[in-house]
Amino acid sequence: MSNRYVYGIVDSDTVEFETDAVAGADRVYTISHRRLGAVVSDIDTTDPEETDEDAQIHDEVLREIMDYDGGTTIVPMQFGMAFEGDRELKNVLRGARPAFRRAMNDIEGRVELGLKLVREEDADIDREALEEEVAERLDPIAAQSVANDLFSDRLVLNRSYLVDEAERETFDEAVAAFEDDHDELMVQYTGPFAPYSFVDVKIGAKQ
């Protein structure tokens, strides 16, 4: 199990704990280069299979890292980033250092929250007016937001929001008030997640 599976990048070298990790690993720890740390676990391949179970474990480990030591900012990696060893991984940290620093500054102290609005079967929805109302209620509270795919005919809005931890309760209340005002919609409010939708750092091909 000499390969390193990467969950994300932190501004620390001290993240370490035992947990159920990807591909049967039972511990995550940090490999550091100049105060940037890749949080990893040891696996026996550089091409892990993305099963539903391991995809869920990947997200759960990221949540544990976010909660670690009273709160830790992590630049999350998508599932499947694995490297042959420490040297290859440190080369990546060295090469992408400025990009990781920028991403970390953008998301520090913030979480991603998801909002999907699904119309009831017989409801007649003015999507443009609905989008305007949601933006009016939620955009002033969020730091950023992005639109996601509408993958169903009844899905009328699908957005991700980057929200300061200090504004989380206010955002929760705004979503709850919106839900109270719209019986014609099913509100699916999810999170917190590591802020995948607001990070765009590529760390190159697997080694």
TrEMBL record:
<dbReference type="Pfam" id="PF06386">
    <property type="entry name" value="GvpL_GvpF"/>
</dbReference>
<dbReference type="GO" id="GO:0031412">
    <property type="term" value="P:gas vesicle organization"/>
</dbReference>
<keyword id="KW-0304">Gas vesicle</keyword>
<dbReference type="InterPro" id="IPR009430">
    <property type="entry name" value="GvpL/GvpF"/>
</dbReference>
<dbReference type="GO" id="GO:0031411">
    <property type="term" value="C:gas vesicle"/>
</dbReference>
<comment type="similarity">
    <text>Belongs to the gas vesicle GvpF/GvpL family.</text>
</comment>
<protein>
    <submittedName>
        <fullName>Gas vesicle synthesis protein GvpLGvpF</fullName>
    </submittedName>
</protein>
